[in-house]
Specification:
Elements: H1 2-20, H2 22-25, H3 28-43, E1 59-62, E2 73-76, E3 106-108, H4 109-117
Antiparallel strand pairs: 1-2, 2-3
Length: about 120
Amino acid sequence: DSDYQLALELSASLENLLSQGLLASATPSASASRSKAAWSQLMAPIQPPNCFVHGEPAKENTVHKPGPNKGKTFFLCARPVGPGYNKGRNERLREEVDHRYQCNFFKWRSDVRQRQTGS
């Protein structure tokens, strides 16, 4: 997970600074503020992406179906489903979507997190 990797990198950089004695020479307030900023970015809530058709914030959902993606979170268009929903993404083109209802927008939460943190 990208969050875990970032936490490992922060820990490694802190250990590196301590071993080189660089952390002791830095002012405590500057070091604390840099650390606080890094952790704040890591722990900040994810802003939901906007769906492409409506431009509205998407709704976060979790996979409950048994399988490799169980427990993963993802974003879907927040509008209610309408007629033709069962046709699926391959048969229902974006141009054919009634804009009063849910469009085909889908994005994994991990992809959104990576884009927001710049990783």
